[in-house]
Amino acid sequence: MSMSEVAKTIIAAKESKGLSWEEIGNAVGMSPVWTTSACMGMNSMPKETAESLCNLLGLDADICTALQKYPTKVWDQAVPTDPLVYRLYEIVGVYGETLKEVIQEKFGDGIMSAIDFSMEVEKEENPKGDRVVITMNGKFLPYKAW
Amino acid sequence: MSMSEVAKTIIAAKESKGLSWEEIGNAVGMSPVWTTSACMGMNSMPKETAESLCNLLGLDADICTALQKYPTKVWDQAVPTDPLVYRLYEIVGVYGETLKEVIQEKFGDGIMSAIDFSMEVEKEENPKGDRVVITMNGKFLPYKAW
Amino acid sequence: MSMSEVAKTIIAAKESKGLSWEEIGNAVGMSPVWTTSACMGMNSMPKETAESLCNLLGLDADICTALQKYPTKVWDQAVPTDPLVYRLYEIVGVYGETLKEVIQEKFGDGIMSAIDFSMEVEKEENPKGDRVVITMNGKFLPYKAW
Amino acid sequence: MSMSEVAKTIIAAKESKGLSWEEIGNAVGMSPVWTTSACMGMNSMPKETAESLCNLLGLDADICTALQKYPTKVWDQAVPTDPLVYRLYEIVGVYGETLKEVIQEKFGDGIMSAIDFSMEVEKEENPKGDRVVITMNGKFLPYKAW
Amino acid sequence: MSMSEVAKTIIAAKESKGLSWEEIGNAVGMSPVWTTSACMGMNSMPKETAESLCNLLGLDADICTALQKYPTKVWDQAVPTDPLVYRLYEIVGVYGETLKEVIQEKFGDGIMSAIDFSMEVEKEENPKGDRVVITMNGKFLPYKAW
Amino acid sequence: MSMSEVAKTIIAAKESKGLSWEEIGNAVGMSPVWTTSACMGMNSMPKETAESLCNLLGLDADICTALQKYPTKVWDQAVPTDPLVYRLYEIVGVYGETLKEVIQEKFGDGIMSAIDFSMEVEKEENPKGDRVVITMNGKFLPYKAW
Amino acid sequence: MSMSEVAKTIIAAKESKGLSWEEIGNAVGMSPVWTTSACMGMNSMPKETAESLCNLLGLDADICTALQKYPTKVWDQAVPTDPLVYRLYEIVGVYGETLKEVIQEKFGDGIMSAIDFSMEVEKEENPKGDRVVITMNGKFLPYKAW
Amino acid sequence: MSMSEVAKTIIAAKESKGLSWEEIGNAVGMSPVWTTSACMGMNSMPKETAESLCNLLGLDADICTALQKYPTKVWDQAVPTDPLVYRLYEIVGVYGETLKEVIQEKFGDGIMSAIDFSMEVEKEENPKGDRVVITMNGKFLPYKAW
Amino acid sequence: MSMSEVAKTIIAAKESKGLSWEEIGNAVGMSPVWTTSACMGMNSMPKETAESLCNLLGLDADICTALQKYPTKVWDQAVPTDPLVYRLYEIVGVYGETLKEVIQEKFGDGIMSAIDFSMEVEKEENPKGDRVVITMNGKFLPYKAW
Amino acid sequence: MSMSEVAKTIIAAKESKGLSWEEIGNAVGMSPVWTTSACMGMNSMPKETAESLCNLLGLDADICTALQKYPTKVWDQAVPTDPLVYRLYEIVGVYGETLKEVIQEKFGDGIMSAIDFSMEVEKEENPKGDRVVITMNGKFLPYKAW
């Protein structure tokens, strides 16, 4: 069973149960963003989390097994076309050099890890139009000299 | 004078004055991230901000003029190679579909603006290794039907 | 059911009913361009519009559900090959810098939104050959400084 | 003298005279969009227009000659990165298939010419935020059978 | 039925009838090159021509309908690999700038239309080796100033 | 001296003498298309032709030498952007498979040479708009079996 | 039946008969390299050769027909990844300019044909390790001036 | 001094001395193909060979030093455009899979080295047109299992 | 049976037997890395090794045959996206020039073979976090002059 | 001063002093591989190391300053062409999936860091041809769930 079939099955179950990612994340005791990413096939779930999710949504054992696999993370579009995702790509293009300047000024030569990493999405209500707030939190890894 | 020459001149002045982006941003009354991005040629400065920055750093009038131009935002590498910037690109690739799911669940069909947008970088101290915290804040724009 | 199957089913129904996009758009109370784009899988329909369209064309409930999903907007060809679409791409290439100059002169530093956006197509009759008139209308979004 | 040097010289003269593209277009009796495109090196000016523009801006004879050359239209980025231009590219990607459906329904099998073509940009004032209105007008060219 | 299935069906019928494109074109009253291109899915046939072709080759009504559709012209290889087609691509690369010089010298600033366009292929017998003669005939379209 | 400098020098001399490619080709006893291509650096001139051209245009000996070199034929854009050249590329994309069918039907398995090859451009006057006629003539090369 | 299915069928038959390409080539009276290339779908077989091969390997009439078709030569990877094929690509990259110098010194301005062309592979035994000897033999085609 | 400047200097000296690559190779006791490749910056010369070549052509010590450097082998065009070099690329595309079949049948699983490798070019006179004969000779390297 | 089906079958058998690559490699008398690579379709197994592996895992004869084929080594992503594999790609990008300097200083002009090559992976325990140790061992191949 | 000028200056000094990277690394108390990478502009040197290196090689203060900057790591070729570097790229392509299997079996879901990373190159003498031994040592980073 491919991860995109797993994702489709989970989304169908989620819709028929009328649950949100927020609710699913809370039910399995993890962040909604991380839970979604694992269901999309971009993170592997610990056994208990996978079982909890499959119980919640009434999914078969093979889904449960698939969710525990270490996924191969592949994306097809070097430059994404969907407007929501492209805007994130554009932010990396426009602000990449700026972030390098600012992060390395604060921390020294190194990078923000994308592995020892978490991310949250919040809704900030605003009379001029609500705002999306994305918070990324990654361990700073200094370059090693040897 | 090209924007990359402007950037080099500003960085040289910043180093000879021993100032950080944090201090420069505070001095001109703007966020350090936005200030850096304007100096990198990725945002245009209002006249007073540009003047304030040039006074602070002792820069010529042509730098001041250049900082007020509406920049053409160009990046050469569709896939960035510098490890710090690549990790951000990787986050878009790995979590792009997840963010689409989560944002559209919270807000409906639409996107997070990269124009009506701000970003901060903070250092979170941690005994296991300090962490980089990036917060993005963009207006939600719903798709218009007509 | 994939959006390209949805699109094929709608086009087949449209042809068997002998309806034009103009007539379908009018019947569901939306612009023909927007209606077509939603049927092509590039915009999501509000529930009533989807129901109205499915009644008009005699389509099943699963088409109605699919039309309401928030679509992932993907196109395969970075440079389109179909001559009608390529000419639009060519206009962006030839006149992109010009539009940047003219729009930013009129509005200041910012962009025309492709989300808060509408578009119409008209036929202008002309003895030397009829002309296609495309009108795009997008909200101006000024860059935010912070 | 390369066309990008010509463009820079014209923009410098335009700024020192304090003229807008709107005013320059009106002064030489052409549309502001077309006038800008010719100054950007994407259209050739008739002799009188070039002379009129060079008189207005106080430019040398070699600029006048360069403006009359038939330009080779080249753009570097298959997918543009500047946000203003990218949004136009995105519109082609998202709505290309839709425009093909709608135009060919109205006109038959053929294309909108990008050569026998004109374009205007207007500002539509709106209390919720001004709007950019771009109107494209191109001759319909039916495919020839032989 | 996809256009590549239509093309395969036509070629199979053509082979079983022992007809050449020359004979088919003559029978339906059109040029062999154009007739072939329509069967390959790159041009749409008027109703009578499609019926005439289907009668000649004994093909079903769905082929007849498919031949009348306005095709979406797509090719996969930006640089073609088949040696016969590559040589044509090479001619565009080697002689493109030359053709621009020569055509614009004869006609002024503009292009040769690929829509109001026809093409013939002839065999020129020659004792040193027969020669392929391709004649392209396209309307000159002058750039419009506005 | 690079071939693009050679080309610029020749074009400047051609303009100051007020000669067309037609006249230059006739004066040196070669086709205008071939003569232009050699001046653009895409063919090597025999010694007498180069001398004749340099006498006609009053060019130095180093131009004469450069014209006799065997050129390395390089083009930068896999997909050309200039509209005149793109239309030729589009013809290869749209009609490539058709030409393969028609040529191989007439000649057997093989290709049209782009080396043992000539090309002419003519103007066909037409009240509905003049037409460009391009004639390509290349030796048929059958595939060798061994 | 696609050419890759034809190739698989031939290879399966070859293996079950225990024959080498060397033996098959000899049996049908052609070079092993050419015979292999025709079975891989990169050359068309004359009728007698195809029949002889199908008799030898016990293959059906539809294989025999398919082998006689004029193939469309397509390869997917602009830069091949298989190490054996990549080394050949590397040789073209490293020695391409050298071969141009040496061939054009010996023959004048022109190319080696890849159509009127043959190739052999031999094994040269050597105590330090056997060596692969590839011999290419192509007609020299001088550029034509006209 | 870059290798392309070294190559230009050597070619200028070669031309002023009226020597061929054949003669230069013979004079320095190496193959003409290898000698040319070293002068093009694609192989490093042993000290004595470089000195011998510089004496023969009257070149400075810095050329002699540059010829002994271990070159970084870079080519710009993943798919070459010059027709002579493209034909070699085409041969790799058309016959790559064939060569893999034939070489691995004769030698087992492995590759032909492009490092422990030599190549010769010969002219084969032929009344129907002379032929280019390229002979490649590379050590077979079997894959190692461990 | 394609190699990716072979790989899936082997992985399923490996999981149902509860064996690691380490144990499988030891059981068939080969390195775990090499054994894995052969199961992934990137190396061919000698007959005895393939039989031993199929006995161990209870696999059919067709798997055994497939494992002995000489594989065509193909990878789809010129730049890999999976974070584990990308880090290796990044190391080649960041340290490629460095390795060229250091290897050629130690060995002279030449390369490290990727064919006469082996690789091991070890776990180095470390209280600050375990470390991955990859050791590559490839024959040095000096460039041949001829 | 660009990093490639810094690198050239260092290499020139290194050659005139007759020092190897081995000797330079030992003199400054760092690994030869890391020292080389810092001189190539791919790592930043601590102040003392940079001073020690500049003293050793007799280099100016601006070189010393440049070596301490945090470099932007850029490489031009997504697929490298130099044979030594390509072989490393090929190893990533051929063995990437294998390394993912083997590393994740030993360590769980995660990656080998390319930042907290070191690398050594050794020469293994061997009568059949010396061997290059590259050892990579990177911290294992487990994916974080949150």
TrEMBL record, chains A, B, C, D, E, F, G, H, I, J:
* Entry EC no(s): 4.2.1.104
**Record-annotated Cyanate lyase C-terminal domain positions:** 74-146
Q: Which GO terms describe its molecular function?
A: cyanate hydratase activity; DNA binding
Instruction: Tell me the active site.
Output: R87, E90, S113
Q: What class of enzyme is it?
A: lyase
Alphabetical UniProt keywords: Lyase
> Where on the tree of life does the source sit, at the highest rank?
Bacteria
Q: Which reaction does it catalyse?
A: cyanate + hydrogencarbonate + 3 H(+) = NH4(+) + 2 CO2
Provide an example Pfam family for this protein. Answer: Cyanate_lyase
Could you say which protein family the record assigns here? Belongs to the cyanase family.
Query: What HAMAP family does the record tag this protein with?
Result: Cyanate_hydrat
Q: What does this protein do?
A: Catalyzes the reaction of cyanate with bicarbonate to produce ammonia and carbon dioxide.
What is this protein's record name?
Cyanate hydratase
Q: Which gene encodes it?
A: cynS
